[in-house]
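To: structure subgroup
Subject: Chain for Friday's discussion

All,

I'm putting the inputs and outputs inline so they're searchable in the archive.
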Amino acid sequence: MTPNQARDFAGSAAQFFLGGLALALVNLICFLLSADLATTSFADLVVILVFSLFGNFAGAMLLCLLSVASQIYLFAAPPLSLALDDPQHVVMVAAS
């Protein structure tokens, strides 16, 4: 492993860790405020955009996957499940 690869990995790990904390905070706030899926998707998209500006592509893609999983689990019906019942929710999650 070259020094550049180690630095890139450390940058991706930091981007994913800090971005994951920010996504968790945004999702917690939206969950406590009983926000709908569209509002949460937009807030998550803003967080992902900010962290993708400071990091690399791999970290941003991991944040996108984390965001989609948390949105499905917390905000799509049935709640606290990874199943999607409503076809509109599939489109909403895919768009984010």
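Points worth raising on Friday:
The chain has a mean pLDDT of 83.
The chain has one domain: 3-95.

D.
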